[in-house]
Amino acid sequence: MSLLKSFLKNLRKIVLNGQREKELANQFINLIKENITGNKVKILDYGSGFQPKVIQLIRTEMEKDNISFEAHCYDFYSEKNLINLNINSKEKYFNIKKLEINNEYYDFAIISDVLHHIGVNKLDKISKIIIDLKSKSKFLIIKDHFEFNLISRQILRFMDFIGNYYNNVNIPKEYFKKKILIFL
Q1: Across-strand partners of 70?
Q2: Nearest-angstrom CA–CA distance, 25 and 8
Q3: Where are the alpha helices (DSSP H) in 2-112?
Q4: pLDDT 10s digits, 51-60
Q5: How far is it, in rounded angstroms, from Cα 40 to Cα 2?
Q6: pLDDT tens readout for residues 44-80
Q7: pTM
Q8: Nearest 5°: phi and psi at 146?
Q9: Helix 3-16 to helix 19-35 angle, to the nearest 10 degrees?
């Protein structure tokens, strides 16, 4: 890992100290607990990345409440990534291309902070993803960013750079505006 990527990874740990993931997990936990029936939950995490801390925090909370928890994490993983990620992991990791042939049904599908990386000009692709995830789950939770002006766009780009550059995730040049996503 380059010096810049290593610096950004450590900066994110120091500045955020996992608080962002904890807050997101708490929001998702509340939604899940309000909508599950029984003591079992199965989640699909679309675009989960290499450190799905939010899913791990959800798992911890569910297990505290004696709720059986299963999570399938999908992203652009290589075969080598999949071997490493699936060793000693409670989550199951899959290449995103396998999602098309996956016939499993989930209680929840989560797509968190992913859509803007696909691109605001690729609404057809985003619509297809959303339709596919809705067909595979009872509930679909979407969390993403909106830009409101040039300043908010630059703040989002800066935060994406700090949070994602070290994992080779593209940094968008623009983000969604509310009026664009309302048509999906």
Answers
A1: 42
A2: 23
A3: 3-16, 19-35, 53-64, 79-86
A4: 888 999 999 9
A5: 42
A6: 999 998 888 899 999 999 999 999 999 999 999 999 9
A7: 0.84
A8: -120, 145
A9: 60
Q: Are 108 and 41 within 8 A, CB to CB?
A: yes
Dihedral, 147, 152, 156, 157 alpha carbons, nearest 10: 100
In degrees to the nearest 10, what's the CA dihedral of 125, 23, 93, 80?
A: 90
Cα separation, 21 vs 38, whole angstroms: 26
CA separation (Å) from 27 to 22, 35, 125, 142? 9, 13, 27, 12
Q: Are 137 and 109 in contact (CB under 8 A)?
A: yes
Token pair, residue 76, equals 């652009």
Q: Which secondary-structure segment (H or E) carries 107? A: strand 106-112
Residue type, 156: L
Whose CA is closest to 161, among 123, 117, 125? 117
